[in-house]
Design brief:
This protein is α+β, with helices and mostly antiparallel strands. It is built from seven helices and 19 strands. The longest helix is centred in the first third of the chain and has 15 residues.
Length: 329
């Protein structure tokens, strides 16, 4: 634009600002992306962050390119939802599958910190929480759980899994239901409440639990399950396998294991803890090869991740019941 046509006293910068104001005055806000895409968007942002900071991280995530394009096109800022009010945070979300409702119906995403009194409703999804006390709490599909304390939860419906992992010494975890209460003693256990059938059962993968119902207390150890019925009958003892079946969903939502700099043996120890299986080596050569260190991180479904990690040292595995046998090619 020439100086003659410019308003008196106007500068190029002022003209540009005026033009921008006129442009934005006619612009309509862009539509927000679908809620279902939010988690993929966040994962895309984290992947870009890893790349920018130089970390060697390899993840298989469906729809990664589409999510990244949403970030670039919309300039979407992704953050973590704070805990409502002044209630203390009791946990941090480590893994989410599907759309999970937290306090006030707000979706929970990786990094969100649920607070005391929050109700977690999973619908068709499932979620893994890292408790402030150090343990891992996982909640299955079609479940409702209230976080009632640093080491306590109320199961309203559905199924949950607790693994004491690195929980602080002496911090037992307690689960309350309308049919009975469970206390763990350094363990991995599964608690399921079927409100329609009036049944509450607790299965133990490792360690020991105590179940109290209608004035009666029963204890269970590895491979045992205690069952309580609404009709008020005594606690019934049953058996449960420590792998597969009842535990499959627990594996699918297992928190990620940072393999970078760790040995294959370290990963195999973690794999055994997450699946309830025992790991054995088919030969001394295979055991020696498992001492090799891993460079980079892998985040895949557990059996696929096992294959990827073993391939680093040219190892394979075979499933034999509850055993996982590691062999050289």
């Amino acid at each position: 634009m020439s100086n003659e046509r410019r308003s008196q006293g106007s500068t190029p910068d002022a003209e540009a600002e005026r033009a921008l104001k006129q442009l934005f005055a006619h612009a309509k806000p862009r539509p927000l992306p679908p809620e279902a895409d939010a988690e993929e968007v966040r994962r895309a942002v984290y992947a870009e962050w890893d790349a920018a900071t130089g970390r060697r991280v390899f993840r298989r995530r469906a729809g990664f390119a589409a999510a990244a394009s949403v970030v670039l096109a919309l300039g979407l800022w992704v953050g973590f939802a704070p805990s409502p009010g002044d209630a203390p945070a009791l946990a941090r979300v480590e893994r989410v599958e599907g759309l999970i409702d937290g306090a006030g119906g707000e979706p929970l995403v990786v990094g969100t910190a649920p607070a005391a009194g929050d109700v977690v409703t999973t619908g068709a999804g499932q979620i893994a929480l890292r408790l402030e006390s150090g343990g891992s709490l996982r909640i299955g599909a079609q479940s409702r759980v209230v976080l009632t304390g640093a080491d306590a939860a109320e199961l309203l419906a559905g199924v949950l899994y607790f693994d004491s992992e690195d929980a602080r010494d002496g911090a037992d975890f307690n689960v309350a239901t309308n049919l009975g209460n469970v206390r763990d003693v350094g363990t991995q256990f599964l608690a399921r409440l079927d409100s329609v059938a009036g049944r509450f059962d607790v299965g133990v993968r490792s360690g020991r639990i105590e179940l109290t119902s209608v004035g009666e207390t029963g204890a269970a150890g590895v491979g045992e399950r205690l069952v309580v019925m609404r009709d008020g009958a005594s606690i019934r003892r049953d058996t449960i396998a420590t792998f597969g079946g009842d535990w499959d969903w627990v594996e699918r939502v297992a928190p990620p294991f940072d393999t970078d700099g760790r040995t294959i043996s370290d990963f195999l120890t973690w794999f055994a803890e997450q699946t309830g299986r025992t790991v054995e080596f088919g030969s001394p050569d295979a055991e020696r090869a498992a001492r090799e260190r891993i460079t980079g991180s892998v985040d895949l479904p557990l059996l696929q991740e096992l294959s990827a990690v073993l391939a680093i040292a040219d190892l394979t595995y075979a499933l034999d019941g509850e055993r996982v046998v590691i062999n050289s090619r």
